[in-house]
Write a structure and sequence with these properties.
The protein is of the alpha+beta class. It starts with 47 loop residues before the first strand and ends in a 12-residue tail after the last helix. Helix 3 (217-229) crosses helix 5, helix 6 (340-350) runs antiparallel to helix 7 (353-366) and helix 7 (353-366) crosses helix 8 (373-386). The protein has helices at 102-115, 163-173, 217-229, 258-263, 294-310, 340-350, 353-366, 373-386, 410-422, 426-430, 498-512, 527-530, 546-550, and strands at 48-49, 124-129, 148-150, 179-187, 190-194, 238-243, 317-322, 330-339, 458-465, 468-476, 482-489. The chain contains 13 helices and eleven strands. Helices cover 25% and strands 13% of the residues. It is elongated.
Amino acid sequence: MLKRCLPTSTTPRPPPSPAAPPSPSAACSSSPPADPPPRPPPPPRGGFSPPPPGGPAATEQKRPEGSASPIGSATGSPTGTAEATASATPSATPTLAPALPEAEQEQLRAALTALFADGTYPQYSLLVTGMDGDLPSIKATTAPADLYAANADTARVPASTFKVLTLFALNHYANLQARLRTRVTRDAAGLYLMAGGDTLLSAGASNSKQIVGRAGLTTLAELTVKALLQGEKPTAALPVYLDGTFFTGPGVNPGWDDADVASGQITPIHPIALESHTVPGKSTASNPVRPDDAAVAAQQAFVDALNTAGKESGMSFTLAERRTAPAEAVEIAAVESATLLEQAQHMMLESDNALAEVLGRCAAVAADKEGSGEAAQQTVRQALVDAGVNIENLVQADVCGMSLTDRVTARTLVQVVALLNADEHAEQLMSTFPVAGVSGTLSNRFGAANAVHARTFVQAKTGTLYTVSSLCGVATRPDGTRLIFAIILNDLGGSDALPAAKERVDAAAAAIANRSTAPSASVAPSAVAASASAPASDGASAPASAAASAAVSTAAAAGAAS
């Protein structure tokens, strides 16, 4: 299956840098070949826009002031876990990393066993493998065995490491160089603001240097007024309707705790919003401020911008209800988001839960499903099945990892990270992962004496709830060997236990990187450090007081964004 770049033809993404490990396209990649044969374009679906020739440089941009990464957790029941059938086989076997020499394996096993021998974390899972992940669909007879496994097939609450699965599904079905289009159409009844999945809009002008705010409603308003002035000037105030049919189904996931929704730790999901469903200028990472209706808030910002842009020419505009635009409505203006890859970088680096839910729905649309939360969960599951990933005991209650109902094994996480590294665009995909001591939610981690030497040499997605600390990604050892790992700690007992749990997780990752102490010989900077993005703003921390803690559910995240 070729990835969809809706609504027109795809443009190949830039090739990976030579620094990336050699890895031919795997089944999950489903990217077209370098020179794909001509094929008819897929039918239009919503607001997707094809990538420009050559594609943009996709680099992490620091979050602007007031753009929050929501945090939280919840309880609830899973939805949308429909049975999936395998339909794809890998086209090639990725290059395998060599297994560690036996002496190094023994050293690794001893170090990791010692870290958890005190019994402080009885509900833990840990798996370390070579770069191939021992994927059953690859059928690589030379694949190394597990280098270390402890409860690797026990399903646990993953927290935000669940976002790795969402990233995988998005890459599986969509062209990551595509952009989301927010459009304005017109008919005799008025204007229609066509939501296209971009929830990182700004109320101001478009800013090409930002991910949040790449598309701005002020720019869209100015383009709209310009288009209107080229025709017959309206003689009365034009109503501005909101068409939000790009997404379907309920905005609130049944797996989310009501207290988390009420506190703003998560929010109803819409196909259009300002700054990831927050109130610009009032929201912070630790205290996200949400509008009552993020879609209407964006619509109101657009109407305000229209009235400002149209004032000189005597035009005025009014806020109207939600309405599906008729087929005969003509597009008169549009703005485009950052690429899906750039949005995925923001999702992963900032651990943005609302954005993860949005991108999961976008993956569903790209897979020819409806843009609902349930379809997003089905799409993630199908992508894993297609790629031959072990999904035994996988339970999905969302696609962001907020729910305490979510369950995944360390083996599933390791296999997905392995496939991302086997993808022909592995370097781009791994650029979405935070780097220890450098970027995203790992920028302030790995500070303890037994972990500090692993800074820049661990690239991994974090997951943190009051009762969960997890980490999965790639560790680079002093000789350049790269190992894939997943660590999940459950039942931590609350926010007071989080700092120690994070330090234990960091120490385990440092041991996997063989950097619990300073290397005995100088080594060249790792490829991880070379490809690291600029530091992102800090992830949120747990509420410091009992009063603050009571504002969210007792399981709420102390940085599901951290």
